[in-house]
């Protein structure tokens, strides 16, 4: 399924309001998420893009100077994070902070997204 056919207008509109550098990072991560799994559905919850499959999987949380690629079941995902990318100490959620396009690690991020989808497959 093509990337553009899986996006939703409310997220498109939200992203247009972001600063240009943050918009580029967020759009790059958005494409990475869609390419990682055809099962993921885009939703707009808690004022940010979320991606679901049998429940919450991951989210994009743009800020002024960075974008967090977050995982709702990040605590469960942490044992698969061999490169130590995940941050956070909450009960369940973890995130990866991305400040520049160069911070994006496509292979590692894709692997974590696929595993996160698998966690919701059970």
Description:
The protein has 122 residues and is α+β, with helices and mostly antiparallel strands. 39% of the residues lie in helices and 22% in strands. A five-stranded antiparallel beta sheet has the order 1-2-3-4-5. It contains five helices and five strands. The protein has helices spanning 3-6, 9-16, 20-36, 74-77, 106-119; strands at residues 41-45, 48-52, 56-62, 67-71, 94-98. Helix 3 crosses helix 5. A hairpin with a 2-residue loop joins strand 1 and strand 2. The two termini are 23 Å apart. 26% of the residues are buried. The mean pLDDT is 93. The chain has a single domain, classed as Aspartate Aminotransferase, domain 1.
Characteristic terms for this protein:
globular; 5 helices; 122 residues; five-stranded antiparallel sheet; Aspartate Aminotransferase, domain 1; alpha+beta
Which fold name corresponds to the CATH topology?
Answer: Aspartate Aminotransferase, domain 1
Q: Kindly provide the name of the CATH class.
A: Alpha Beta
SS strand fraction: 15-25%
* Rg calculated over all Cα atoms: 13 Å
Q: Quickly give the CATH architecture.
A: Alpha-Beta Complex
Total strands: 5
- Strands of the widest sheet, in order across it, are 1-2-3-4-5
